[in-house]
Amino acid sequence: HKGIVNxxxxxxxxxxxxxxYPNALDSYLEAxxxxxxxKDSQRTISVYERLVHLYFxxxxxxxxxxxxQKILELNESIGKNNxxxxxxxxxxxxxxxxxxxxxxxxxxxxxxxxxxxKVYQELQDQHGLAExxxxxxxxxxxxxxKYLRGIDYQLQSLEIYKKVNDEMGIGVNYYGIAI
Length: 179
What we know:
mainly alpha; 9 helices; globular
């Protein structure tokens, strides 16, 4: 049965990469039904993350928030002893912060991103931290008009991306610094 969910997720990914969002959505929702039938909470979270991505690229940030909340709620039901607990928590918090940022709600965005920062620090996830700092930099600069704070965050992000040799991240940060 896990093979069916994986196949549906792969199909949804392929459809989404070809911008066939309605059929990708159908595939992900079918995967979600299978996860519910199997009572597989971790796979359900994976499906929610795919749905988040699908709605994010369509700029449907209110729907993104709904699924981020489901990730956080389901993660709590899984429990802190689950090896994926912190990763799921970081994902749900980061997604929420990014959605609020795109909904032009900087206070809520900062709230969730700062919580995600703590989890990424605990996980020692350099990419997660770099992304969080970049987004905090954008919020500080664009929404809050705290330019020096924004540049500080962008420089923290840039330093991490350079350390892990992430050229895309480096480029994105230079853009973030420029605005």
